[in-house]
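Reminder to self: tokens first, then the designed residues, so the page reads top to bottom the way the pipeline ran.
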């Protein structure tokens, strides 16, 4: 590179400066020398090399002691480049007849350290011009320039809002520069998360370069402009028994630490921190809640609805009734919203609500009346009714001859609750028959069955007894050799509901047939009425036919 038409060597501070002698070595060269020029133009010789003796001599110049090296081709090297090495150096080649000179300009460059933002403000306040910090970049050569950035954009000076001052100080011993740029800044609320940084622009051997500082974010203080109240946990449905917290917040920085809470029914605000806890809320907590700053300058409100669900079951608990009695049952609810009610009997959901005009044994069981508010999670109620239907033992005895004609089956059909205990006896001997088999006890009914092959007529007695009464019924059974009328077995124990359904079906068929007969009769009557005149001759003929039939019948009787 050339500077003002002269050959220039660019060196990095601390590195080795290499300057070739750009002269052609002439014939008859005696020696070569290097010198540099003082600011006043006077020369200072620093190195000598003889072409004949091949020896090298370095002049006693303190700045270059132990730093110089002159090669055979008269290239001069200077170790550990300094700012003071920025000079005009001259290579000289001397013969007996001539002295040739070629100058070289040396330029030294030093990259500054990464800039730092020092003396940072603890926080910034809106509408106030204050010192944000100082950007410091050290040991630069030549001197550099400092630029401030906010969120990646250059901060331009603006009167009363952005004030920048740059100072450059040179170290006299090293010649290096330290740049310090201070920034005074008036922030706005939008600067709360702004990133501030500074960039140093400097020159190096290859041209202009930059180094950027680490970004810095400042805490920006600004007053509260709005107050907000909210309910925690955030849920649109609050139910009785919940624990909730009112939270009041202001959008200032730092946020307010104290507020006034206004509770329904209270005339004055309650001073508290930013939260107001409410435990085990009840339905009377429904209403409008407010909060404000302590100076009452700003306020916000919210409405809380506490959902509730009440259920009343009458009767409830354990209820004991007698078979055939009536039992009115009611399940009423009171709620903050429409609720659904359903019944469960013995873990099975019922299609309709229970109604007992005449209690039967199958009505006994565990009933649950349950209700829920579908919109409010977890709000449900239920109450239970344990219905016990009691009855004195009732007995019906049946008998039948088995298909093998060798034995008879005697069945004692028993109903009652609590379950009666059954005993069999034979009249005369009074002995207890222990070989009876019982069916499953369902809906207050069961059967006890014995199989016998009597050789003579006997009387069997079935005794059923529970806590309410003792019932005795007897049945005469003929010897197996004597034919007798076999009573059909009562299958109502397990099929009572099926029999009822069949009875209903038969009644329906009979009623239908009667209706059809009635319609047919009306039609026939109308037909007869219209055809009365036309049918007289036919009636006469039919009368003759009837007389002939009577004569034939009389003749047949006589012959008999």
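Designed residues (560 positions):
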């Amino acid at each position: 590179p050339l500077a003002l038409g002269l050959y220039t060597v660019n060196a990095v501070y601390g590195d080795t400066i290499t300057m070739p002698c750009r002269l052609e070595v002439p014939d008859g060269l005696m020696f070569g020398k290097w010198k540099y020029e003082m600011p006043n133009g006077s020369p200072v010789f620093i190195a000598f090399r003889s072409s004949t003796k091949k020896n090298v001599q370095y002049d006693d110049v303190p700045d270059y002691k132990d730093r110089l090296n002159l090669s055979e081709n008269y290239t001069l090297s200077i170790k550990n480049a300094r700012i003071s090495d920025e000079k005009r150096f001259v290579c000289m080649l001397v013969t007996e007849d001539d002295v040739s000179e070629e100058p070289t300009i040396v330029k030294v460059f030093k990259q500054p350290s990464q800039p730092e933002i020092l003396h940072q403000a603890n926080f910034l306040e809106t509408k106030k011009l204050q010192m944000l910090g100082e950007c410091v970049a050290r040991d630069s050569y030549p001197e550099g320039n400092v630029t401030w950035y906010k969120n990646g954009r250059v901060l331009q000076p603006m009167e009363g809002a952005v004030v920048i001052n740059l100072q450059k100080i040179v170290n006299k011993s090293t010649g290096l520069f330290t740049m310090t740029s201070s920034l005074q800044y008036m922030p706005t609320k939008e600067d709360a998360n702004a990133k501030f940084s500074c960039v140093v622009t400097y020159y190096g051997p290859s041209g202009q370069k930059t180094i950027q500082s680490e970004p810095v974010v400042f805490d920006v203080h600004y007053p509260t402009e709005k107050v907000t109240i909210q309910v925690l946990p955030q849920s649109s449905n609050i139910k009785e028994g919940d624990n909730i917290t009112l939270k009041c917040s202001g959008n200032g920085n730092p946020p307010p630490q104290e507020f006034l809470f206004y509770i329904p029914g209270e005339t004055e605000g309650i001073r508290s921190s930013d939260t107001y806890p409410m435990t085990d809320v009840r339905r009377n907590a429904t209403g409008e809640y407010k909060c404000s700053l302590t100076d009452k300058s700003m306020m916000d409100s919210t409405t809380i609805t506490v959902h509730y669900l009440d259920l009343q079951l009458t009767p409830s608990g354990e209820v004991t009734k007698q078979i055939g009695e009536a039992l009115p049952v009611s399940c009423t609810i009171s709620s903050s919203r429409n609720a659904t009610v359903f019944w469960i009997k013995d873990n099975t959901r019922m299609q309709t609500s229970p109604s007992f005009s005449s209690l039967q044994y199958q009505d006994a069981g565990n009933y649950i009346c349950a209700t829920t508010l579908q919109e409010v999670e977890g709000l449900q109620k239920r109450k239970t009714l344990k219905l016990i239907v009691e009855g004195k033992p009732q007995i019906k005895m049946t008998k039948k001859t088995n298909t093998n004609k060798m034995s008879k089956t005697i069945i004692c059909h028993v109903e009652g609750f609590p379950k009666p205990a059954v005993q069999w006896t034979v009249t005369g001997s009074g002995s207890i028959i222990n070989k009876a088999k019982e069916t499953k006890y369902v809906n207050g009914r069961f059967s006890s069955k014995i199989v016998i092959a009597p050789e003579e007529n006997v009387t069997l007695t079935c005794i059923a007894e529970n806590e309410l009464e003792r019932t005795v019924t007897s049945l005469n059974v003929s010897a197996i050799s004597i034919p007798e009328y076999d009573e059909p077995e009562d299958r109502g124990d397990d099929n009572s509901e099926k029999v009822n359904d069949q009875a209903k079906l038969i009644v329906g068929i009979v009623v239908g047939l009667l209706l059809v007969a009635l319609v047919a009769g009306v039609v026939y009557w109308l037909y007869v009425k219209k055809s009365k005149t036309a049918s007289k001759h036919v009636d006469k003929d039919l009368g003759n036919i009837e007389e002939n039939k009577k004569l034939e019948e009389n003749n047949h009787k006589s012959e008999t």
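The radius of gyration is 61 Å.
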